[in-house]
Write a structure and sequence with these properties.
- By secondary structure, the chain is α+β, with helices and mostly antiparallel strands.
- Helix content is 19%, strand content 34%.
- It contains three helices and twelve strands, in the order αββαβββββββαβββ.
- Strand 3 and strand 4 form a beta hairpin.
Length: 187
């Protein structure tokens, strides 16, 4: 009996481990994201560092394409203009982690350089398998998925329906700002 009790107590911490989340408070409602540090440790560490530093407070979902994705985390609006926020060094790509760009997944935005992701992220509105890892080549790397929306997909879908246009030379920008007022980490 004592051995069984000891075994159960050893398993308890594993079963009780909380999955880390981030809540994005937006002017359209809350979005809760479950992070996956087991599959994308460097990317999650990078994202959480931005959250803890307050980087995402008062940033915009600055690129919204219905039927594709919503992107945010890098711009504020100042006097009607988009202003890019300063970022930390880029994080190494982890797109070969087995996670897919499916509905509700969150992935890092980047330039054509696979190792260029900093603070910007996007939430997939549909299954975007063409963004998934295929090979370790410039055209095959894809985009690192590091979590998924577990609450607030209705908010994400509402955001996807806002009117967009050109602002400051950028296209697909919401004409009425969609603001991340705060991001909160919950370990």
């Amino acid at each position: 009996m004592k051995k069984l009790l000891t075994s159960l107590l050893l398993l308890l911490p594993l079963a009780a481990q909380a999955v880390p989340t981030v809540e994005l408070t937006t002017n359209k409602g809350p979005i809760t994201i479950e992070l996956n540090p087991a599959k994308a440790p460097k990317t999650v560490e990078n994202f959480v560092a931005y959250v803890k530093a307050g980087h995402y407070s008062n940033t915009l979902f600055h690129r919204v394409i219905d039927g594709f994705m919503i992107q945010g985390g890098g711009f504020t609006v100042q006097n009607g203009n988009l202003e890019q926020k300063p970022t930390r060094a880029p994080v190494m790509i982890e797109a070969d982690n087995g996670l897919k760009n499916v509905i509700g997944s969150i992935a890092m935005a980047r330039t054509p350089n696979p190792n260029s992701a900093t603070s910007q992220f996007f939430i997939n509105l549909v299954n975007n398998d063409f963004l998934d890892f295929r090979s370790k080549t410039p055209e095959g790397w894809g985009y690192t998925v590091f979590g998924k929306v577990i609450a607030g997909m209705d908010v994400v879908n509402r955001i996807s329906k806002v009117r967009t246009g050109y602002i400051g030379g950028m296209q697909d920008v919401p004409l009425e700002p969609v603001i991340i007022t705060k991001a909160t980490y919950k370990p």
